[in-house]
User: Fold this.
Amino acid sequence: MQIRQLNIYPVKSARGISLPESIISAEGLPGDRRAMIVDAAGQFITQREMPALATLNVAPEQGGYRLSMEGKGEVLALPSSARLDVTVWKSSVNAAVAIDEANAVLSNWLGQEMKLAFFDGQSKRLANVEWTGEETPVTFADGYQILVATTASLEALNAEMTANGEGSVGMERFRPNIVLDTDEPWAEDRWAAIDINGIRFDLVKPCTRCIMTTQDQMTGSRDVPSPMKAMGRIRMSADRRVPGVLFGWNLTPRGEGLVRLGNVAKVVEWRHEAWPLKRRG
Assistant:
């Protein structure tokens, strides 16, 4: 199996950027989830609450980001000297705040007071040690460093959707960092670790999915085929520690190096049993 896609999402919940290659660091892919939009109180905002974020373009520039939305112009968002304690899920992170001009433009675009928070050299956050086994750094991702998904699993999900007249979805709905080209669906449920170009990645926790998978990742529309019913039929977790429907796995890198499109991924450790799923009714 080989790497089919490499993606980063510089601003959490905004549009992503596809890459031909990427360094792997302890935090994952450099540039991934290094900024996020927060409300006036510092609470993170995602497409879950604001689908319009799917239309936000992001281009790294001058230590910040060139942000744009169709029909609304663009703005260069740079970090200022101001700082704010922001919240992402259960984590509190001290972050740099964008310059006032950028925050004002974002607020106007999105219809309420917003700020762009930057995860910089002073910001600190750790993934959940219960799953990673040791302290590992993470930025503004939902919880872990890298998300992997496989082509065979997407094909199996779409086959289930099609068989039930529910349409089909693309891989972009799941916002993975690494997409592996595979033949066997759901084989990743049995992988404990993979190796890519000499770098070990531990599969630490399956990824539960939410309403964001029901949104078009270019328009933010929810009037499109949804994978949630199909995942509920075939991908419902039977482990109470991770309730909900599953697609993809969270990876924690155990080394550093460079990966490229086309690199071969090898399973170097297997689970004794696949992740448990509820039986179909």
Summary: The radius of gyration is 19 Å.
